[in-house]
Amino acid sequence: MDKAVLDASAVLALIFAEPGGDQVEAHLPGAAISAVNIAEVATRLLARGMPEDTINTIIGSLQLSIRPFDQQQAMATARLRPATRSAGLSLGDRACLALAGTLQCPALTADQAWSSVADDIAVTVRLIR
Q1: pLDDT in tens, 43-77
Q2: Are the C-beta atoms of residues 120 and 89 closer than 8 Å to each other?
Q3: Which of 11, 53, 67, 107 is least enclosed, having the fewest CB within 10 Å?
Q4: Angle at 74 between CA 70 and CA 76, to 5 degrees
């Protein structure tokens, strides 16, 4: 079983050596992440001008368990919308939380808003900062 599910914010904190990155590193190798959240990470790195080869190398070096965003995960993500709407959670946020719920692992994030919905959706949220 996976030790934790990572949000894009958690992975970016690790990559950029931001506060909380050490907490993320403690779950490597093997932490799970949704393909949706990998897309978010890659998007942010591309926006900073990082070459795709470098992005692929960085992501590969983390030894993450990248999980597909299939129909089951899409539906689990969609079901979270009513409980997370008031907190303003994005599709990527909900994809991470849905995967954490499916795997019954804590979700690691830097997004404080997740704490306000964790009990409502029965997912353990661990803030990295």
Answers
A1: 999 999 999 999 999 999 999 999 999 999 999 99
A2: no
A3: 53
A4: 120
